[in-house]
Specification:
One of its GO terms (cellular component) is TRAPPIII protein complex. This is TPC13 protein. It comes from Furnarius figulus. InterPro entries: TRAPPC13, TRAPPC13_C, TRAPPC13_M. This protein is mainly beta. It has two domains: 108 residues, Immunoglobulin-like; 104 residues, Immunoglobulin-like, CATH 2.60.40.10. The strands form six sheets. Strands 2, 6, 8, 9 and 10 form a five-stranded antiparallel beta sheet that branches. Strand 19 and strand 20 form a beta hairpin. The chain starts with a strand and ends with a helix. The relative contact order is 0.16. The mean pLDDT is 87.
Length: 228
C-alpha cells in the first residue's frame, strides 16, 4: 500500500571457524533509498541488534533487515514503481580468525511486484469505530495503473451489512494513465461487530470492463450507547 519494500537477508557461516562480519550492506537500485533496520537506539546511542560482538560462529545464522522507499521523483508517478523488480544488491565483507578477508557481492536482487491490475483502489481515510445505522464518511483514492485513458463509472452495491448512501452509477469522467482521483463516499452499517467494506464497482466505458472491489477495509460497528 505504501510502495515500501522490506528485504530480509539470512546469512550463515558454513565454515568450521568463527567469522568477523565487517560489513553487510544493501546497495539500492537507482529508484530506491534504503534504511538499515539492524540497529536500536539505547540511551541516545545506536547499537547493533547483534550486540557488541560482530563474530559469527560456525553454522550460526543472522537475519538482516532493510527497508527500501521509492525516491520522491519516482514515488509521484503511479504505476512506475509497481513494475520495478530490481531493488539492489547485497555487499558482504568478513574476516576469518586468521585475518583472511573475504567479500561477496550478490547479483541484482529481484522482488515480486504486486499486481494491482489496471485500476488501483485504496482507502485514504476511514474511521476505526462507527455507530450502528449512522452514516460515516470514507475517502478513496483511484489510480489508473494502465497505459491508456479510462472513462470510469462508479457503482455502489449494498451487502448484508453495508449500505451505501448516494446515487449508484456515478460518472467519474476520464482518468489518464498514472493519474489519480480522490473520492468521498458515505455509507452505514446495519450490523454490529467488525464489518468489511465491500461492494464498489468501477466500469471503464471504453472497454466495457468492470473492476470489483470487496473487502477493502474493516470498521468496528457499535451501538450508539456503547460508543458514548
Amino acid at each position: 500500500q505504501t510502495d515500501e519494500v522490506f528485504l530480509e537477508a539470512q546469512i550463515q557461516n558454513i565454515t568450521t571457524s568463527p567469522m568477523f562480519m565487517e560489513k553487510v550492506s544493501l546497495e539500492p537500485s537507482m529508484m530506491y533509498n534504503v534504511a538499515e533496520l539492524n540497529t536500536v537506539d539505547t540511551a541516545g546511542k545506536s547499537e547493533s541488534t547483534f550486540g557488541a560482538r560482530t563474530y559469527l560462529q560456525p553454522m550460526d545464522t543472522r537475519q538482516y533487515l532493510y527497508c527500501l522507499k521509492p525516491k520522491q521523483e519516482f514515488a509521484e508517478k503511479a504505476g512506475v514503481i509497481k513494475g520495478v523488480t530490481v531493488i539492489g544488491k547485497l555487499d558482504i565483507v568478513w574476516k576469518t580468525n586468521l585475518g583472511e578477508r573475504g567479500r561477496l557481492q550478490t547479483s541484482q536482487l529481484q522482488r515480486m511486484a504486486p499486481g494491482y491490475g489496471d485500476v488501483r483502489l485504496s482507502l485514504e481515510t476511514i474511521p476505526d469505530t462507527v455507530n450502528l445505522e449512522e452514516p460515516f464518511d470514507i475517502t478513496c483514492k483511484i489510480t489508473n495503473c494502465s497505459e491508456r485513458t479510462m472513462d470510469l463509472v462508479l457503482e455502489m452495491c449494498n451487502t448484508n451489512s453495508i449500505h451505501w448512501c448516494g446515487v449508484s452509477g456515478r460518472q467519474l469522467g476520464k482518468l489518464h494513465p498514472s493519474s489519480s482521483l480522490h473520492l468521498a463516499l458515505t455509507l452505514l452499517s446495519s450490523v454490529q461487530g467488525l464489518q468489511s467494506v465491500s461492494g464498489l464497482r468501477l466500469t471503464d466505458t471504453f472497454l466495457k470492463r468492470t473492476y470489483e472491489y470487496d473487502d477493502i477495509a474493516q470498521v468496528c460497528v457499535v451501538s450508539s450507547e456503547v460508543k458514548q
